[in-house]
Amino acid sequence: MNRIFSGVQPTGNLHLGNYLGAIRNFVRLQHDYECIYCVVDQHAITMWQEPAELRRATREVAAAFIAAGVDAKKQIVFNQSAVPAHSQLAWIFNCVARMGWLNRMTQFKEKAGKDRENASAGLYVYPNLMAADILAYKATHVPVGEDQKQHLELTRDIAQKFNNDFSVPDFFPLTEPLILGEATRVMSLRDGSKKMSKSDPSDYSRINLTDDADAIALKIRKAKTDPLPMPATEAEAETRPEVDNLLGIYAALSDRQRSDILAEFAGREFSAFKKALTDLAVEKLGPINADMKRLLADPGYVDQVLKDGATRARAIADEVYDIVGFLRP
Ligand code: TYM
User: Fold this and answer.
1) Is 267 helix (H, G, I), strand (E, B) or coil?
2) Which residue range forms the structural domain that includes residue 220?
3) For residue 123, is it within any domain?
4) 127: Cβ below 6 Å to ligand 1?
5) 60 and 24: one domain?
6) Which of 2, 17, 20, 192 could form a disulfide with 242 if both were Cys (CB 3.0 to 4.6 A apart)?
7) Ligand 1 in reach of 13 Cβ (< 6 A)
8) Of the candidates 181, 93, 184, which has an alpha carbon nearest to the alpha carbon of residue 134?
């Protein structure tokens, strides 16, 4: 059986990268798979979160899933901390994963920065909790953006070692990442060498899912480019990182090939392309933005979706404890 699991952290500022790299694919895949979509609040607290803001952001991510088109009646939408199996299995994986494996994780190095001694222990074992999220449901496929690839490789290593150590050869599946579409790594609008990120101090670096049409237009207008007109070929676009990023965003939002878009805009003023991109982004993101607002005006509804999702998730995640030898009298 094929099952999808994926998660998004409720750390504020959900952006276009989260949408194109992940959430939009959650919606597209739900017709072919049984899907479990999680707001990973326990991952969020590996860095400090204001409790009231964490609650707000948790609802916001759930609302974004639903507003983007996830069918919460058919699929499971819930928040991680409501299902104890995640942290229980993560503890087991803390004892399966090796220090050497975790030491290679680039996300830890990026997030801990120079002051590694002062990073939380949770941030260090973050990938083990992520493996637990996925494997608690024996998910076979995980839609994510490119930045999560290394974590999914670790998830496979953990699954394999667990299966070997406990002589249960096929217990955990070797999960496949699904990194889909033209925008698997959306870059900052201010710097084409940096990933678009929730934590970038400049709000102009990203298009938030909560931005209205005026904010989207302003951010695209101010997006960094160069004085040259639109390139004619993909190879030429690749030498201009900010241009290449906007082209990828256009391709993803319009479901068209980059080459097709270049054929339309080659040699034209960059401002004409930005204008078309603004119209496209407003057309695609506007309805999601409006629906998120509507959902968040009634937190009771979102809370009910999360509660119902957690009940259904809990019923799936178990079994592993007998294998490890935990007595459950
Ligand atoms: P998070 O919350 O940082 O991001 C959520 C999803 O958005 C994708 N993404 C991007 N895609 C394209 N361009 C970008 N600039 C960009 N920024 C983010 C991410 O790849 C991700 O798919 N560790 C995960 C959350 C997680 C998880 C899981 C994911 C926890 N447990 C289990 C999958 C399965 C994270 O921090 O995502």
Assistant:
1) coil
2) 203-292
3) yes
4) no
5) yes
6) 192
7) no
8) 93
Q: Is residue 141 part of a domain?
A: yes
107 closest CA partner among 129, 136, 91: 129
Is 184 domain-assigned? no
Ligand 1 lined by 40 (C-beta under 6 Å): yes
Model confidence pLDDT, tens digit, residues 212-266: 999 999 999 999 999 999 999 999 999 999 999 999 999 999 999 999 999 999 9
Cα 323 to Cα 329: distance, rounded to the nearest angstrom: 15
Nearest CA residue ID for atom 5, ligand 1? 8
What number does the ligand 1 atom closest to the CA of 126 have?
23
Mutational test site, ligand 1, from 148, 154, 199, max ligand atoms within 8 Å of CB: 148
Q: Is 149 in the pocket of ligand 1 (CB under 6 A)?
A: no
Same domain (yes/no): 312, 172: yes
Ligand 1 center to 185 CA (angstroms):
10
Q: Which residues of the chain have pLDDT under 70?
A: 319
Instruction: Give the global pTM.
Output: 0.96
- What tokens were used for 66? 């639903």
Distance CA 245, CA 258 (A): 11
Q: Is 149 a catalytic residue?
A: no
Note whether 34 and 76 are same-domain residues. Answer: yes
**Residue 172 tokens, joined:** 């955990």
| Number of compact structural domains in the chain | 2
- The answer for 13, left when phi > 0, alpha when psi is -120 to 50, beta otherwise, is left
Q: Is 198 a catalytic residue?
A: yes
